[in-house]
């Protein structure tokens, strides 16, 4: 492995333009890495949050082993209530998540995976019929498109056409993150969401680390400082990101660890909604009806909102707007309070959105997961 790495580094000159960065990433994932075990961090093995709905585990277990072998994600971007949804997976790779989504959206839903790396698109397409038969569908509901997620309309994805955009460890490889978020926002229908897992840094990653091709390929060079996601999301029109789950990433390779210095990394999943542009949002009292599949007693919406069935709770204006405008609308009784949004919720530190704090809190559970994955 060290051999492959140094050979790989020798092949590359300093990356200066976006195109160079992309070519580097294509090589890294298209031909250098044979399987997830070749990655230099624990990103892929620490992906499992503590409790995963059974339907998700079952869907993942049905995916063909050749597809799963080339899984390079760092999380589990599987929101509740995907049935019937039109979903788009940015940077779909070998297609593991897409095939699991294909099962979860059911025959009336549809899944599009987009990836720029030809080897991976070719690999993912080889298993379309296999999964169609496995899931008992009359026709396949999944397609794989080769293209760039910065240019979704060129790839044939229309504006306002997608219910849920998903992604697993891709934004950290991408130099222009704002462009990607903007594209995701444009193709989403109003009320739709971007639900994605990615790597984040505990502080802004300095430029010299971005120039290092292996650090970039591992996602360590291009990871966003987690707080920067919040301003980026707002700048393209999304609601404030809600933190769903997080775990620490362990860098195994000592050379890379030294290069990272005092920066630590976490893998985390956030959800961001495309809400109608409207007047001031009002707080509300909301009651979960217990109607979302897999969540009869409690809907774990994010790390700070777990809605218990038939228990009325007050939520802030943005959460109220999310429930009112998204696919979760039928699952809640919503009573608007005539109180304008109070400012107290959005402290500048955003502790409730910090993946490093959440990862510490969930620490014992992460250990369990890494044990079962070894
Ligand atoms: C770390 S891998 C993750 C793949 C997949 N999501 C998974 O979980 O296995 C990153 C993927 O993103 C793709 N990718 C990176 N930048 C991209 C871009 N700008 N447009 C499309 N695909 C991109 C790469 O080709 C690679 O397959
Ligand atoms: C999609 O929406 C964006 C933002 O409103 C707009 O700039 C762009 O032209 C639209 N693309 C197409 C193909 O209609
Ligand atoms: C992307 C894709 O092929 N979607 C198909 C999924 O299945 C439905 C119903 O069978 C088709 O209408 C879609 O075209």
UniProtKB/TrEMBL annotation:
Domain Methyltransferase: 83-218
Pfam family of the protein (one): Methyltransf_31
GO process terms (BP): arsonoacetate metabolic process; toxin metabolic process
Signal sequence, start to end: 1-18
Entry EC no(s): 2.1.1.137
Catalytic reaction annotation: arsenic triglutathione + 2 [thioredoxin]-dithiol + 2 S-adenosyl-L-methionine + H2O = dimethylarsinous acid + 2 [thioredoxin]-disulfide + 3 glutathione + 2 S-adenosyl-L-homocysteine + 2 H(+); arsenic triglutathione + 3 [thioredoxin]-dithiol + 3 S-adenosyl-L-methionine = trimethylarsine + 3 [thioredoxin]-disulfide + 3 glutathione + 3 S-adenosyl-L-homocysteine + 3 H(+); arsenic triglutathione + [thioredoxin]-dithiol + S-adenosyl-L-methionine + 2 H2O = methylarsonous acid + [thioredoxin]-disulfide + 3 glutathione + S-adenosyl-L-homocysteine + H(+)
Top EC class for this record: transferase
UniProt keywords, alphabetically: Signal
Similarity-based family: Belongs to the methyltransferase superfamily. Arsenite methyltransferase family.
Name recorded for this polypeptide: Arsenite methyltransferase
Organism field: Lates calcarifer
